[in-house]
Amino acid sequence: MAIIVQKYGGTSVGSIERIENVARRVLATQKAGHGVAVVVSAMSGETNRLLGLAHQITEKPDPRELDVVAATGEQVTIGLLAIAIQKLGGKAQSFMGFQVPFDTDAAFMKARIRSVGGEKVQAAIQEGYIPVVAGFQGVTDEGHVTTLGRGGSDLSAVALAAAVKADVCEIYTDVDGVYTTDPNIEPKARRIPRISYEEMLEAASLGAKVMQTRSVEFGMRYGVKIHVRSSFEDGEGTFIVQEEPGMERLLVTAVAYDKNEAKVTLVRVPDKPGIAAKLFGTIGQANINVDMIIQNISSQGSTDLTFTVGRADLPRAKDIVEKIAKEVGAERVETDSNIVKVSAIGVGMKSHAGVAAKMFTTLAKEGINIQMISTSEIKVSCVIDQKYTELAVRALHDVFGLAEPGKNG
Amino acid sequence: MAIIVQKYGGTSVGSIERIENVARRVLATQKAGHGVAVVVSAMSGETNRLLGLAHQITEKPDPRELDVVAATGEQVTIGLLAIAIQKLGGKAQSFMGFQVPFDTDAAFMKARIRSVGGEKVQAAIQEGYIPVVAGFQGVTDEGHVTTLGRGGSDLSAVALAAAVKADVCEIYTDVDGVYTTDPNIEPKARRIPRISYEEMLEAASLGAKVMQTRSVEFGMRYGVKIHVRSSFEDGEGTFIVQEEPGMERLLVTAVAYDKNEAKVTLVRVPDKPGIAAKLFGTIGQANINVDMIIQNISSQGSTDLTFTVGRADLPRAKDIVEKIAKEVGAERVETDSNIVKVSAIGVGMKSHAGVAAKMFTTLAKEGINIQMISTSEIKVSCVIDQKYTELAVRALHDVFGLAEPGKNG
Fold first, then answer.
1. CA torsion, points B127, B130, B136, B140, in degrees to nearest 10?
2. Which of A350, A353, A356, A388 is nearest to A369 (CA)?
3. pLDDT digits (tens, 9 = 90+) for B277-294
4. What pLDDT digit, counting tens, does each position of B222-261 carry?
5. Which of B46, B48, B69, B145 is the best substitution to test chain A (most A C-beta atoms within 10 A)?
């Protein structure tokens, strides 16, 4: 008997009708001879409604109490889904975070999982039950309720799959898999049947919205095979797995873009040691994540220093940088949130040169100026003017041959 | 430092504004120098909304899962109230049922409290926190979430008060105390400043809606002083306490009525041993509560057997009785749900005769026929035609002198 953990997001359980639909899918999997546990999110809109109530009281509600309120969203779904499975003749039992348990640290609203006790869920599966587990929530050593933050339910599913040694963790979502790029921009985008954890990690952090980085990371660390599928139609979806010999070896697997960054430039900073350390130390202390950093070569004793942050953090980052600019005698600070980061991703480029060159040439041919560049072993990213997003994505998708499976660009 | 447990019902926390109002009241109590814990219900309408979702799936949802869903109602309130208290500068921490814990048996939807761990709540009070505790919910030995059924939040409050050795348990509700009778029927009804547990128990079981029997019973058993007060206006409310020498000694303390019963009569039952045992045994097995039972004296070898049940149980009771009527050769079965039970209650009547006689005379004077009578040490109840409810209540309230404090009827 294979053990399968299935995860359904808010849209998939957004109404009683859809919950009943999920119940049918889960039961069908069990009837096919598998052991099944299911992890669910709050009904779509519910988490926002709950947080909204708290924010009616104050702009900054206590994170511990916010988690108590927010955790009810998933709790309602597990009860309803268990009832729906039972109505169809199945055996089901719901599990809240503290009942599994998902042990976490006490960082409310963004708790990290420390360990997952799989025993009770495993025992229930063995007895023919379908455990219906609340995603997104956990419990501290001291019994406080926590939530895991954005993408938390995916993480719950992957962590549970690791704990019960599941053969696969199926993530049901409103898209039918991971694509070579955003199909809304490039109609020729193709579903990727298998992608490595590393590539998926890059894709997620570079703007692909299918799965959050932390769930993929967790899956990679514990070797959980993840299967992204549509909850509305049958289809083969995308497997996220260990890089394996049989995998399609394209140089580039996907083209991603991220409109969520903003650029900050310190113009004409005196070229003295310690300034960058001071700047990024202060920004780090303010809990602002910096993505790309570029420092041009010095000319006439001064230099330009450019970096990107999340767009939401730009106002805070600007305040900090302007203060430091005065202190160190920089000429001025410029910011630009009208940018996009376009990336080519693929484990294939590890062993091949030329991907970066091909990317720069392609963008140049389209008349697109590259503002910043950053590379890793399996990706090349360029920051460009946001208005070129679609043009750049389509040109790169095309030049790397992603529309035609098996053909390298 | 006195320890006060305050309980606010669904109407009192029915909106964000009202929750903020409760926060102010709770804080004011703490600022007056007391240690305070607060127990709350779900926002009004919320429990019904949640149960409604489950009933959209099936008419008979699994009680365990229904409790998982229903318990979220109180959970939302405790988080919001804790946030509201913090916003006003107070220290607050919410407690779910499993966090206190309220240990219960596994009778889902109507669990009974086995024990309450008061240590964490007590410690929080000592540290200057206001513990905000979810009413209505508990947890079994095995970690399943339970709910306590009707009136559960009052019970939670009284049980918590016992566990933390509170000086008083204040029940805030939409009335400002216990009255000599229903003020909607008798405008001269008077608030009772102090009432004994025994009288309150009778009043609750005889139709007074202020508090459920089980909370009063619990308070009586553990000697918890209960104070019923209005959550919308300041006032002295009603203390429910041990009978004490200083208490006002009226023969009759209150007049109650209950429209929630129905009458069943087996006409001309053969007068043989074992028939009543069989009848009430079967009804008991069907989980139907029988209140009053009357058997007339036998004439010509047969008798009439009359009893009352809750109105909601009448259809089921009728089915059972009609089956048994055939088996034992009774002539026919008659039912009547057009009745009311009117009761006079008072510890004073323990040591005085004549209350029953005065009651019968008063009803007779008004031309009201008494269909059934039942008495205990501290109450006399009569079943009459429902159309006489108001007439009977006013006449009895008057004849026992309840409108004028200190004067016995």
1. -20
2. A388
3. 889 999 988 888 898 888
4. 999 999 999 888 889 999 999 876 655 668 999 999 999 9
5. B69
Q: Distance (Å) from the C-alpha of residue A404 to the closest C-alpha of chain B?
A: 46
Please give the C-alpha separations between residue A246 and each of A23, A225, A241, A243, in angstroms, as whole numbers.
35, 16, 12, 9
Residue of chain B with shortest Cα separation from A98: B143
Q: Does B24 touch chain A (CB under 8 A)?
A: no
Whether B308 and B262 have beta carbons less than 8 Å apart is answered as: yes
Distance CA B92, CA B26 (A): 10
Test A57 with B99 for CB contact under 8 angstroms.
no
Distance between A150 CA and the closest CA of chain B, angstroms: 20
Chain A residues with CB inside 8 Å of B93's CB? Answer: 64-65
The residue of A48, A72, A83, A96 whose CB has the most chain B CBs within 10 angstroms, and thus the best one to mutate to test that interface, is: A83
HEC profile of A31-99: HCCCEEEEEECCCCCHHHHHHHHHHHHCCCCCHHHHHHHHHHHHHHHHHHHHHHHHHCCCCEEEECCCC
Contact residues on chain A for B47, CB-CB shorter than 8 A: none
Q: In chain A, what residues touch B57 (CB-CB under 8 Å)?
A: 16, 19-20, 80, 83-84, 87
pLDDT value at B409 more than 70: no
Residues 182 to 201 of B: which have CB under 8 A from any A CB? none
Tokens at A118, concatenated: 């799989």
* Cβ–Cβ contact B64 with A under 8 A: yes
Nearest 5 degrees, angle CA A135-CA A136-CA A142?
110
Task: Find, in chain A, the residue whose alpha carbon is nearest to that of B84.
Answer: A57
Q: Hey, what are A238's tokens? A: 């995308």
Which tens digit of pLDDT belongs to each residue from A210-266? 888 899 999 999 999 999 999 888 889 999 999 876 555 668 999 999 999 999 999
Is residue A87 pLDDT above 80, yes or no? Answer: yes
Our CA angle for B235, B239, B245, nearest 5°, is 130
Q: Which residue of chain B comes nearest to A59, CA vs CA?
A: B87
Interacting residues of A120 by C-beta distance below 8 A, sequence separation 6+: A95, A99, A100, A131
Kindly give the pairing relationship between strand B130-134 and strand B92-95. Answer: parallel
pLDDT of residue B271: 81
DSSP string for residues in B44-78? TTHHHHHHHHHHHH-SS--HHHHHHHHHHHHHHHH
Q: Which of A80, A91, A93 to mutate to test the interface with B (most CBs of B within 10 A)?
A: A80
Do B146 and B138 form a contact (C-beta atoms < 8 A)? yes
